[in-house]
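Sample pair:
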Amino acid sequence: MLEFLADQQFWVGLGQIILVNIVLSGDNAVVIALAARSLPAHQQKRAVFWGSGAAVVMRILLTIVAVEILKLAYLKLVGAVLLLWIAVQLLLPEDADGEHLASSSSMVAAIRTILIADLVMSLDNVIAVAAAAKGSLTLLIIGLALSIPLVIFGSTLLLKLMDRFPIIVTVGAGLLGWVAGEMAVTDPAIGAWVSANAAWLHYAAPAVGTIAVIAVGRLLARRAERTEAAAHELVDLAPQDEHTKAPR
């Protein structure tokens, strides 16, 4: 029943899947860390754990149907737009009500962000994992399950670094913009044309995605900060106005 454990090819394939996941899980670790960074410390670990575990389970399901999914035209284009939106939202400052996706003050919201972003980014990753599994569902599930601690470790490390070096938040969001640009130009609807007539887009689109995310994110962040500052100023002035009113 467990003869596959003595199969050398099994261990070679398992090693390949683990290595593929180490390489491909960097983006996912960035998303998890960004989404969980504003949670209380005791909730950060839970968000990282459940977000990582759910993301890996979802990736297993995606990998099973990866070939058919990636044949759908315009799917990557839609995914790229969604990923750009997520990246910009992750740059927005935490608001007072905690309703922004960026702040993820609710652990459920943080996990939802992780799952949506991982779903989008996994469209390309699942092909590499499926190829390494060579059709073995058992090998695929074991390999991806072993990748959970790798993603959790990477996310936890990034969370600590973000506290010390806030610039990492901007770099991480920019990375998501890069991934979105790469995804867009490989969509089946335009991928062949791009490769034949505009191969430079394979470099230009990711660069534009990165710049757009950082520029738009900072613009919206400044606007939100000005709005919040104005609201606080009005609140501070309100009591003074009451006291300065002349008695009738």
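The first helix runs from residue 8 to 24.
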